[in-house]
Amino acid sequence: MSSIVLSVVVPMYNEEAVIPALVARLRPVLDGMGVPYEVVAVDDGSADRTAALLLDHCGIWPELRLVKLRRNSGHQAALTAGLHRSRGDWVVSIDADLQDPPETIPEMLTLARDRGLDVVYGVRADRSTDTPFKRYTAGAYYRLMRRLIGGDVPSQAGDFRLLSREAVDVLRALPERTPVYRLLVPSLGFASGSVSYVREQRAAGDTKYPLRKMVELAWDSAADFSAAPLRIATWLGALAFLACLALMVFGIVVWANGTVIPGWTSLFLAVLLLAAVQLICLGLLGEYVARIYRTVQSRPPFHVASDSIEAPQQRPAAAAR
Ligand code: UDP
Ligand code: MG
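Above: the input record for the complex with uridine-5'-diphosphate. Below: its predicted structure, written as tokens.
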């Protein structure tokens, strides 16, 4: 096994503003732990100077390593790249924006070692620094996931966690296309514990999780871990069937009474309703078919452009014609 004890994986997307503060806070904590470590900073295809700044810091901080992805692949894919490349016996994943305090890392490692745990979750004890919108959507997310998936989703545990090498190797071996680690890790059933911390304010820069990405994460979480959304289609179908039955009874009664009705409105509504329900059901089926398709294609979710611990690749000279 490698001599590196601890790997710290930090996914970064357009985080140039926060890098100085991150380095200033993370380095003393890790240096003070007295174990060989590496920091795997994953540049998730940033459009700003994130990669250049990190590379500068690599020169003065030997434990810092830059893994650069070719394009923006998303937070979970960047985490995957970091986990796959990490070499430590223990791997901590942490956000770049210092919302997760690095000072908690030694506590996580001590807990895991003392109790023989494979996973230690960082659990947010206080989110008062998050915006009310973020708190509300996060609360709704965890409630929905617990409902869809069952009890073993630790509440308020995001992507700040420590994993043993064994747990990382199991994660790496899974053929998941869009892993949602906060749900995947608990589902593996490793011995786990938690350390609570107070979520701090973003140290600099803006959130890289706009509403669109939050909705994507929620949908990935729901569809990867549950077929319940498909059941919505069945329920909608059943409801529409009941409505049609009622309409049929109505039609027969009207016919028996000999009342002539224009009939246009009811027909129009029934056709609209049925078309809408069928489209919803098709859409839901399509989402799952798309997932099957992506899995069968098995394209890698990210492409590493360079890794600062590897020698730059020699481009073969253009063959003479
Ligand atoms: N991130 C990333 N790729 C993305 C979006 C975000 O690597 O496409 C990183 C980001 O740089 C940060 C972490 O994921 O380190 C969490 O993002 P952020 O703090 O913006 O999310 P929030 O705390 O607002 O939910
Ligand atoms: Mg953040």
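Notes for the reader.
The chain has two domains: 6-208+300-307, 228-297.
Residues 95, 97, 99, 202, 207 surround magnesium ion (ligand 2) (CB under 6 Å).
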